[in-house]
Design goal:
This protein has 8 helices and 14 strands. The chain is α/β, with parallel strands linked by helices. The strands form 3 sheets. A 6-stranded mixed β-sheet has the order 8-4-1-2-3-14, sandwiched between helices. A hairpin with a 2-residue loop joins strand 1 and strand 2.
């Protein structure tokens, strides 16, 4: 008997990310000129998780496409540690031992991966990032994709998805802070030339920042000023600990709300270029994405933009 295997188009990547109330997916094609083409995005109401994954595979004929699926922030920790002086093959085991006191779950129940931090002179850094994910969460994601017939290639984290988006920004050449604000929480990354140097989780989002309004006059000024302090501390840390030139640009990822007033306020307080991102300006596709769709599908798009082969 001869077995036949479906040919997989290596230029296509499917990004999948759950969010409050739904499952977002995006299909990106890497074109010959290196520019990403956004083929489609989908936001599926998530009553039953397994059914949502099955609907994705069925409705968009995504079976067989290499898939990048993102973990929920509650299911992993991203930790900066000193790089152990061991051979590369022993790095994960050595880092696992160091994480024993740093996790809020037992290290024996974790899946560990590591990635290098670039040094100022381009040499190997003496620090690295470790991702420790709950083994049960990793297995659950694998089971969901397998059950739906989706070809899971990588289980990734939102920080890397946001880094993938930042890499396409013109500001990334000299260093950029990219902020993604959800309703209840946010995430900020600091990247330069495609490298993730720093990330910070923000324990509040648009609901606490703006309530029902998005103008600075209607915003919670105390929370907004707290955000400014967090941004400044993060950028100071980046400049001091990584010996990098100061970041001069802040970009807000789509959050479904107009942020012109907030950008002007941050510019006045920080003296930096601050703008809101429209994904339509950086991705080609058949149809423009409205603001709400961009916000819901941001991390799925970021996952689909992944180009590395290393995975958890």
């Amino acid at each position: 008997m001869r077995w036949f295997k479906r040919k997989v188009d290596g230029s296509l990547k499917l990004g999948v990310a759950a969010h409050d109330g739904g499952l977002a997916a995006a299909l990106v094609r890497q074109q010959a000129n290196g520019a990403p083409l956004l083929s489609w995005v989908e936001d599926i109401a998530q009553g039953d998780t397994a059914q949502a994954y099955a609907a994705l595979a069925r409705d968009k004929r995504a079976k067989g496409v290499h898939t990048v699926s993102l973990l929920d922030p509650a299911d992993y920790s991203l930790v900066m540690v000193d790089a152990p002086e061991v051979p590369p093959a022993e790095m994960r085991a050595a880092v696992r031992w160091r994480l024993n006191e740093l996790l809020d779950f037992h290290v024996d129940d974790a899946v560990i991966d590591v990635f290098d931090l670039p040094a100022a002179d381009g040499a190997r850094s003496n620090r690295l990032y470790a991702v420790a994910a709950r083994d049960t969460a990793v297995k659950r994601l694998a089971e969901l994709h397998d059950g739906a017939g989706l070809a899971l290639e990588v289980i990734d984290i939102p920080e890397f998805a946001l880094r993938n988006v930042a890499e396409l920004l013109p500001e990334d050449a000299n260093g950029v802070a990219l902020l993604a604000l959800g309703a209840a929480r946010g995430l900020m990354t600091v990247t330069r030339r495609g490298a993730l140097y720093l990330s910070r989780r923000i324990d509040y989002g648009t609901t606490r920042l703006f309530g029902d309004g998005v103008d600075v006059s209607a915003a919670n000024e105390g929370v907004l000023d707290t955000l400014i302090i967090e941004i400044q501390r993060s950028l100071d840390y980046y400049e001091r600990h990584f010996s990098q030139a100061p970041v001069q640009s802040i970009v807000f990822a789509p959050c479904g709300l107009p942020l012109d007033g907030v950008c002007r306020y941050l510019h006045s307080q920080l003296g930096m270029t601050v703008r809101a991102l429209d994904l339509n300006d950086m991705l080609t596709g058949s149809d423009p994405l409205d603001a709400a769709t961009q916000a819901r599908c941001l991390f799925a798009i970021g996952g689909a933009l992944r180009r590395e082969e290393v995975a958890l």
